From TrEMBL:
Organism field: Flavobacterium taihuense
Top-level taxon in the UniProt lineage: Bacteria
Record-linked Pfam families: DUF1508
Residues of the signal peptide: none
Protein name in the entry: YegP family protein
DUF1508 domain residues: 12-58, 64-110
InterPro entries for this protein: DUF1508, UPF0339_domain
Amino acid sequence: MKFPKFIIKKSTNDQFYFNLWSKDEAIVLKSEMYTTKQNCKNGIESVKTNAPLDKNYDRKMSDNSKYYFVLKSQNNGQIIGTSNMYPNASDRDTAIESVKIDAPIAETEDLS
């Protein structure tokens, strides 16, 4: 399967989660844990809907001075994805731009 794509996996405690992989084959967004596969798929659809809109991103800095972002649902403000940590704001912002472009067109691969 080509990139970008969402990959669904099952955790050791039988919950489901997804990662969004960019065109460059790097993980740019990680989901929370879901109790059902259908809820996980609904999370992917929410990312696809919310990703293009810049107002849905919160740009943050961690306690150890690393940069990251969270993607929130415009409907309820719930976090639907969290990025990796980046060494600077520029790398974080580049990842946001990647999610905006990649998420709406990404296919889903189920490895659960």
